[in-house]
Amino acid sequence: MSPQHRSFLSAIAKNGAVVALFGMLLFALNDTMGKWLVATYSVGQIVALRSLAALIVLAPFVWWMGWRPLFKVEKPRMQVARAVISTTETMFFYAAVFYLPLADVMTYWLAAPIYIAALSPLLLGEHVGWRRWTAIGIGFLGVVIALQPSAAMFQSPAAAISIIGTCFFAFLLISGRSLRSTPDTVLVFWQNVAGVIIGTIFALFDWVTPDLRDLVLLGLLGVVAMTAHAMINRALKLTDASVVAPLQYTLLFWAIVFGFIFFGDLPTVPMMIGAALIIASGLFIFFREQQLGKKDKVLPAIPE
Predict the structure, then answer these.
(1) Is pLDDT at 281 greater than 60 in this prediction?
(2) How many whole angstroms separate alpha carbon 79 and alpha carbon 83?
(3) How does residue 10 score in pLDDT terms, banded at 50, 70 and 90?
(4) Which of the pair, 238 or 189, is modelled with greater confidence?
(5) How far, CA to CA in Å, does 129 sit from each of 43, 118, 121, 278?
(6) Would you tell me how many other CB atoms lie within 10 Å of the CB of residue 58?
(7) Residue from 20, 296, 65, 293 nearest 180 by CA
């Protein structure tokens, strides 16, 4: 490789926005593989094997860090609750993509920051002014439009799975705010341990022995997700959250592209209108919190 090429790649690696965009692309690829696999394998089996692969990738970092930080953690009960919530949210996500197009699921999950803003006065003791309440209302309107409520919708498991899953995702993000001093390696380790345990329990009822190709894809779910998380964390160190967080909405673009390429899905007009309102609301809430000096409490909300 020539010095010019090395210099170009080095410049890209130091650009937080570029690193974040590539991380979002990896998350979208991970979700696409998950939708492909959930047509054949149970949600529990996917979560168990995905988490096991992630633990294997994480093992060298745990070895380097040492085992003691894994067991000397702040708020042990909250750590356990967060690990369980993380696994539950992941299972609901994969269940949702079984029933719905990728773009639809991504739209519902990207509404999680709106739920957090609405719950922050109750759960975090934060004051929410009229501007953010207006944005919250617009965001919820977007969710309602995207869901296209009707009597038939409430009889569909897809609607219930999506609503419950996004609530778990919101609680996962809130729990992350209360565990800000816990190293990322510790958080990810226990999340994946919970994924292996809970996923295996559910997988026992509907186990399908994967062939070599699918086994590789199931393992890649964990590897790609870990790599994507690492890239987002790296991006947050290279640039401000105000640069990284809005880039999360490129997930919807990739979900539309990959959903059409691999599954022939096209978003409906109500879904696109709802998504636009959710994105506008989420961006306003984010930048309003930045303006109010809550930078330490705002992190990108990455669905997976």
Answers:
(1) yes
(2) 6
(3) low
(4) 189
(5) 40, 11, 10, 19
(6) 17
(7) 296
Residue 54 CB coordination number (10 Å): 26
CA proximity to 301, closest of 286, 280, 281, 284: 286
Please answer whether residues 18 and 190 qualify as being in contact, where contact means their C-beta atoms are separated by less than 8 angstroms.
no
Q: Is residue 93's pLDDT more than 90?
A: yes
CB atoms within 10 A of CB 131: 12
Is residue 271 within 8 Å of 107, Cβ to Cβ? yes
Return the amino acid letter for 140: F
Residue 303 per-residue DSSP state: -
- Which whole number is the average pLDDT over 261-277? 90
Distance CA 174, CA 301 (A): 10
Q: Which residues contact 216 (CB under 8 A, 6 or more apart)?
A: none
Q: Which among 96, 99, 109 is positioned nearest to 251, based on CA atoms?
A: 109
